[in-house]
Here is the input.
Amino acid sequence: MSSKNRYEFLNERLNLSRRSFLKTTAVGSAVLTAGGLVELKTAKQARAFAYEPYPKDDQLQTVVTSCAHNCGSRHMLVAHKWKDVVVRLSTDDGRYQRDGYFGKDDRVEPQLRACLRGRSYRQRLYSAERLLYPMLRVGERGEGRFKRVSWDEALDFVVEKMNHIKNTYGPTALLDQSYAGASFGVLHKSDQIEGLLARFLGMFSCRTSSWSVPSYQGTTASSRWTFGQTEDGNEDDAFAYCKLLIMWGWNPAYTFHGGNTFMYMRKAKQNGCKFVVVDPQYTDSAAAYDAWWIPIRPNTDAAMLAGMAHYIFTNNLQDQDFINRFCQGMDAGTMPVWAQQQGMENFKDYILGKYDGEPKTPEWAARICGVAAEDIKKLADMYANTKPAALKASWAAGRNAYGEQYNRMAAAVQTMTGNVGKLGGSAEGVGKVWHAEAVAYPYDQYSNIWFASIKSDRWAHCVLNYPNVKREEIGLWQRDDATDGQIPNIKGIFWQGSDWFNQLTNINKEIAAIKKLELVVCMDSTITPSGLWADVLLPVATHFERHDVALPWYKGHYYIHRPKVIQPMGESKTDFQIFTELAYRISPVFGRDFNPKASRDYWHIDDNVDETYLRDWWNNRVMPHQGVDMSWEEFKQRGVYKFKFPRPLVAFQDQIEKGIPFKTPSGKIEILSSQLALIKDWKKTMYGYEIPAIPKWIEPWESLISPKTAKFPFHLISPHPRWRTHSIFNNCGWLRETYEQEVTLNASDAKRLGIKQGDIVEVWNDRGRVVVPVYVTERCMPSVAVLHEGVWMDLDENGVDRAGNPDFLTLDEPSPAGAFAYNTVLCNIAKTDLEHRPGWDKLATSRAHVFRRDL
Amino acid sequence: MSETIEKAKIKEAVKRRKLETYTPVKPEVQLGFVHNNVDCIGCRACEIACKDKNGLAPGPRFRRVQYIEGGTYPNVYVYKVNMSCNHCAEPACLPTCPTGAIFKRKQDGIVDIDSTLCIGCRRCEAACPFGAPQFDPVDNLVKKCNLCVDEIEAGRKPYCVMACMMRVLDIGPIEEIWDAELETPAIGPEEKVVRQVKNMANIELTKPSIGFVPHSKGRVK
Here is the structure.
């Protein structure tokens, strides 16, 4: 029976007695109109349905839209609204796409079901934390006292300060800290490098940009060096074809990283795929895929991978033919002549210890990473002998000191086993393969103008030490003009859709730095912990209140239309409106150039202009470039377009099967990076410090093998939580009741410290101190503590964070390639009497309990 | 919820309730849930969809994804048991209701509460061995899962089922579920369905309409 028939059959079964139900229902008399609104009648007769009056989905207006944040996916949300109020949200059920029907859900066009965060969106939309009016600071910075002002007053304040700062301190004085956080679409985009704010500040001729990406800079650097591009991933349905899947620090059950990855992995499991999880935690992904758990000390991944490489080389398990054809620098035979002439090291001889007398044996690795040598050998054996096998090298293990070495090492191991470019294999670091047409806003010579560009987590260091800062300390990007090497004199910050003050490393240092600034602007839909430190708060309409199109960016291949589901709340405006009006206030020419399709009326009416931008994007980019035959009108009417591919997309398939060169300088997979090998003066690169041309194990500045453990015996990692997208949604009660901000500890550690489940502890090191409850479990490696990032900081009078934000403990010392060292943290833990404050409000509900069951 | 309490109507209902003898409803078809304890990633999208659908504040949770973990490092196990109301064949809540507000539907066996008759006495809450009825202090009523009866009437499935990102939660005629005959992604190839898992209340108490694909550690001998 086809699934379509199946549903019709079920419908009959489920609708056994519709008549008898209608007899007692109050709204049986309501007139249904197709897709339109109906008047609900409040009846006085007896009601069988539990909560009447209760507007049912079919009586409400249905509007397809999507989630909007930077979690890696952007799944469908379907708003059911009554007049201008969203009554509830549902998600894709197969009905909305072309040729769709209720229940359609197959490999080619799976449903794009929203996660728990998306489903809770009404709580964010209608939250008490919504910013509805422009506000100006009245107290000290960070005190959190504001007054409501008119848009005129707020915008004039910003313009006057901007002009003053630029004229006084020059073109590097305003720092762009936009991020993809609260505002992401093809039109209203807050992007770190080329979003609306970048365009605005660039055209204003005063912009220092932040170049390193917090999530995955180690990974992108590695993939660019090794494969010549960051599109190194497979589409999610390719995971169904794996025979072995090694989840290296990857927890798709938490991150929902893209389309339907976790669901395709379930298909792989049903097809007999074996799963391995290399992670300090026995994650929910490990549980759901029944994986072999290999607990590993944080930040030692490159050593374990080197140990695996040693086993593979010494047992001659590598795919030598593949290496010979596609690699540069994997071994002596694949070294280019120029590198041989300069006596450069190759990867195999490094692993065998030819250069430093230290063979990177599994036993050597075991002493570093804490995994038994036998397990390293067993995993290497499995990986080398199972074809195809996917080693999924996640971003988390790269968010470390020398994180790029882990990513490079993983790429080398993926390559030596010949798993690159093959269905069921994986070259994944970054993990993207399919690209959306991502830009509908004006995109021209003004898109990314910058006068200085620094490593994103070094801004506080730069502000506090200006002008006594060396360029390598802040990872200053090279410029081709006379300003190369000039340290930016940062005097103001713009936050557009970003909560970076809460999310970057070493918050206490940021607090010291922000006091030195003259202008802090926060544009967001809700108040945020960053917003509390701003001088002016500009209320931005959420993606429910403006016209846009959603695009996936990690995995998945679709567009979702986002109409203005409801009118903007309060006095909120779209960020595009705000920048346009600011530009007009600076000069009419600026305004026109910034938003060429609009007049100044855009401030009041944005519908036609936004429609024009989006329609042009669809007609001129999406349809011709991506072979889409659905008209803009049909797309708007349906709400979703799903691409259909004849086969799962796999990165580098053409390079391997058709011999097309890789996009590296040599056209090969560069285990020896030509780019790195040729750098002479590291200080003049944005890296600042030397990076080896082949992947190497480099000991991080903090780890469990460091002597610093005498004082700080726990290694703290701060993965992404499931109940927030970074810091977004932390104010939603529904989500805070499902999971709690807590530090995870192994039961033996807790016992030694006299700590029981639910006790409150302090977690501290030299950089800061936070207060959180404890989750005691056997699922975590001893000496490792896990504290999820993104909780809204809540400082007490002594500077202790009562909410438990791990970034009070992280160090603002990025890896040379720019990777944030979020997971390179040692700390100590002890019981405390201090109160934990999980949110800015109080919920009268207990946490979701974990039941401990003995065998 | 109802806006006003109609006292006369409730009194009449109580009188009627005292006169009537309760005879269990034998539904024409009993609908029930199936949940895969192993493949569930425990994300709780179903819980949030349920709360949104039913307009609940933090506090009452009609659907509860329970984490069960055990073993000793590094040999550990984790699985999830996901339950809302089991729409039991012999619901323990129903006979405890002093106003007769709780009823079981003949056509599909759904157990529901008439909120216009509920007085918030919470007897049903105490009677249910699975924790299905939940007190809502905002409305001063007991509420619970009604299997999204409005969606069922419209020919669709409950919000929790349609929210499941892993497709491990589903509904169907319960006999088909127990025989693993229901065509559903919740039950994988070769997988069997059980009616009882470890540490769950004895199913003989109420005969709940739910089936599980159990974890090896959750099996009952």
About this structure: The first helix of chain A runs from residue 3 to 14. Residues 1-7, 13-48 of chain A have pLDDT under 50 and may be disordered. Chain A has 28 helices and 27 strands.
